[in-house]
Write a structure and sequence with these properties.
mainly alpha, Arc Repressor Mutant, subunit A, two-stranded antiparallel sheet, 5 helices, 2 strands, 66% helix, 5% strand
Length: 122
């Protein structure tokens, strides 16, 4: 029996936004790599992200191990982009703690009025 040895490309695709996805799923490369770095075996990663195939996860990890510097650079860029988006969102949104305080004050006010009305009925 003859084994056909051929090179396979990694199961990675880049979407329109520049994010790299694994296999035929919407799972991001960074999710698979970070899970692997945190000690999750490929089987556990597939359990977490059921749209992934075990062979795609193994291939992705193998690709990462052979190209760590490039992948780490990509992951760093993605983290910087995520931080930039978080900052933009926090600047665009009002301070949620003020809204929470106002809602709690309103709830306390309503509770007090309900208790006063209850006492009057007694």
């Amino acid at each position: 029996m003859s084994l056909a040895l051929e090179r396979e490309s990694p199961p990675l695709t880049e979407d329109a936004a520049g994010a790299i996805r694994v296999g035929n799923s919407r799972v991001l490369l960074e999710l698979v790599i970070r899970a692997f770095q945190d000690g999750a075996p490929p089987e556990t990663i597939v359990q977490r992200y059921s749209t992934l195939s075990l062979s795609d996860v193994y291939s992705t990890i193998g690709y990462y191990l052979r190209h760590q510097q490039e992948i780490e650079s990509y992951l760093s860029e993605r983290e910087q982009l995520a931080e930039s988006v978080r900052q933009q969102l926090s600047e665009a949104q009002p301070d949620l703690s003020l809204i929470r305080s106002r809602l709690l004050a309103q709830k306390t006010h309503q509770t007090c009025h309900a208790e006063v009305a209850e006492r009057r009925e007694l």
